[in-house]
Amino acid sequence: MISQDSLINFALESLGLPDSTEADIAPLSKRGSGRTFFRFRWSPQDSAIIIHYDPERIENTYYADIAVFLTKRLIPVPRIIRHDPSKCIILMEDMGNIDLWSYRQKDWEIKRTLYQKTLVAAYRLHNIQEDLSCSDIRLMEGFNAALYEWEHKYFLEHFVKGICNIDIEPKMMAAIKNELHQLVKRLMKAPPCLVHRDLQSQNVMIMDEKPFFIDFQGMRTGCAFYDLASLINDPYVYFSDEEIEELLSFYYVLSGAALDWDAFRSFFWEASIQRLMQALGAYGFLSLKLGLVEFLRHIPGGQNNIIRASTYVQNIPMLSQLLLECKGKTETISP
User: Fold this and answer.
1) Most buried one in 11, 21, 121, 163, CB count within 10 A?
2) Cβ contacts of 209-213, under 8 Å, gap ≥ 24
3) Do the Cβ atoms of 162 and 288 come closer than 8 Å?
């Protein structure tokens, strides 16, 4: 582990500040993915964020270059001040402590405005149209059938079996796998674009009433509906059916979608099933395998959202039955 003195020296040098500058450094809550975060402050008004990352998580080595790529294309992300790959340190703009999640209890009029601004930024990301093979940017492998299927296994292993302690009998498992295979085939028909991959409320910082994306190291090509599901069917924030429809309609009009509205909605709810399986699998893995039991409290929101989504998706009767069985098994779970 690198010393805090080394991090301070790195920041002072990067900012062109004298060694005699009175500065302090404070660790921030851990965001995971093999990274540690610090707030470096050299005056009451001036601060920056330091990230020290584990390069074994290959996506961590992509973060700074992706940030520069997005900044050049006017996608709102923190500005990279300096990146030293040899030391695995990034110094970047401090976006403060207020994220989109912080507004979860606010009146709909306030939330709606911020979410619409976030959807505008998401659309700009999804609408980047260039040949990425000709750029220097490195990305994780794009969404494909194998990645979607990996998320299914993640859900079945760490949530259905790990959290709910359900052993699915072979005939039912075969039926569920067939339903999920068909779901993947439908999602693969959605137009491909760049996606954030984890566009939930805690990965959108709010500064001066404007959204800024963070934690985009997993950005890749995929389906825009996966991002929409991550944001609008976020287990951390409750939306009524009417609010979901309003936000989804806002993006639909904004994007000038070539799809008709019914097809657009179908893609959204199917992507919501996919995304929420990934999220529930993650809650199981993080709580049971890594001991991060605080993630257990997000299970009810994730389950409620995926059960609601299942009512909008046809041809998944066995999966829907499993989701209801899981709900019954987790009613007594608490962190």
Assistant:
1) 11
2) 209/114, 209/117, 210/76, 210/117, 211/76, 211/100, 211/114, 211/117, 211/118, 211/121, 212/76, 212/77, 212/78, 212/95, 213/70, 213/75, 213/76, 213/77, 213/121, 213/125
3) yes
Residue 32 DSSP symbol: B
CB 103 within 8 A of CB 115: no
Separation between Cα atoms, residue 212 and residue 127, nearest integer Å: 17
- How does pLDDT run across 135-171, given as a tens digit for each residue? 778 999 999 999 999 999 999 999 999 999 999 999 9
- Mapping DSSP to helix (H, G, I), strand (E, B) and coil, where does residue 89 land? strand
Q: Give the Cα separation of 34 and 331 in Å (integer).
A: 32
First-to-last C-alpha distance (Å) of the chain: 30
Quick one: DSSP state of residue 157? I
Distance CA 119, CA 113 (A): 10
Q: How many CB atoms lie within 10 A of CB 150?
A: 13
* φ and ψ at residue 30, rounded to 5 degrees: -65, 130
The Cα–Cα gap between 207 and 118 comes to 12
Query: What is the reported pTM?
Result: 0.95
With tokens 């900012």, the residue in question is: 15
CA distance 88 to 292: 25
Spell out the domains of the chain, with CATH numbers in brackets.
4-93 (3.30.200.20), 100-329 (3.90.1200.10)
Does the CA dihedral 12-16-22-27 come out positive or negative?
Answer: negative
Total Cβ atoms within 10 A of residue 25: 16
**Joined tokens for residue 219:** 């950005």
**Given its phi and psi angles, is residue 165 left (phi above 0), alpha (psi -120 to 50 degrees) or beta?**
left
